[in-house]
Amino acid sequence: NAGVTQTPKFQVLKTGQSMTLQCAQDMNHEYMSWYRQDPGMGLRLIHYSVGAGITDQGEVPNGYNVSRSTTEDFPLRLLSAAPSQTSVYFCASSYDGGDYGYTFGSGTRLTVV
Amino acid sequence: EDQVTQSPEALRLQEGESSSLNCSYTVSGLRGLFWYRQDPGKGPEFLFTLYSAGEEKEKERLKATLTKKESFLHITAPKPEDSATYLCAVQSYSGSARQLTFGSGTQLTVLP
User: Fold this and answer.
1) What percent of chain B shows pLDDT beyond 90?
2) Distant-in-sequence, close-in-space partners of B41: CB < 8 Å, separation ≥ 6
3) What H or E segment, with its residue span, contains residue B87?
4) For chain A, how big is the Rg over CA atoms in Å?
5) Do A44 and B102 touch (CB under 8 A)?
């Protein structure tokens, strides 16, 4: 049971480049979320999904897109990277929306130069 | 808008020195309050969910309590392996479907 798998673990992008952060879970969880974590600001919700084909915006969605074509996968796309998107990104999933806790991946550390 | 404030930002304890971490929250209709532990370079790890004022939950040296305005994470006789950042989060009935609003965390260091 791998849990939540995020790739890559580290990435450096140039301003204006695009990329996709991958997130996959093997627990048949319906709820999936993307957060960014910045020093002193805690985890902030970017986008989330409550099932395949259903996505919605969180607190800080600008500059990011998501899709949920399968239950397992929830990729996060950076459309045109900016230095302000330098952060650590976490994907999380839950069976029931949190009563037994969200399971987090190990994160992707992204630097935009 | 849901808000979560954690204090102190950082706490250093000697091994065996008990203390408490605070999580104050403002939410329109609390569905649940969550505590997570985060080790450096890793994702948060779920500890507890609390649903109503007066509720308490325990796990080893940790005990979480909840009132109508705040939650406390009590650490009894901590060990160096308890060193981590502890995150508090709330989930409201009116917010995004079962999503979490996090505080900025308390970084706990337990010295041997």
Assistant:
1) 85
2) A106, A107
3) strand B84-92
4) 13
5) yes
Mean pLDDT rounded to a whole number for chain A: 94
Name the nearest CA neighbour of B111 among B5, B11, B8: B11
The Cα A100–Cα A85 span in angstroms is 30
Predicted pLDDT of residue B95: 65
Yes or no, beta carbons of B97 and A42 under 8 Å apart: no
Q: Which residues of A touch B46 (CB under 8 A)?
A: 100-103
When pLDDT is averaged across residues A12-29 and rounded to a whole number, the result is 97
Nearest alpha carbon to residue A6 among A74, A85, A58 = A74
Q: What are A34's two structure tokens?
A: 């993307």
Phi-psi region of A43 (alpha: psi -120 to 50; beta: other; left: phi over 0): beta
pLDDT tens digits, one per residue of B38-77: 999 999 999 999 999 999 999 999 999 999 999 999 999 9
Nearest CA in chain A to B43: A106
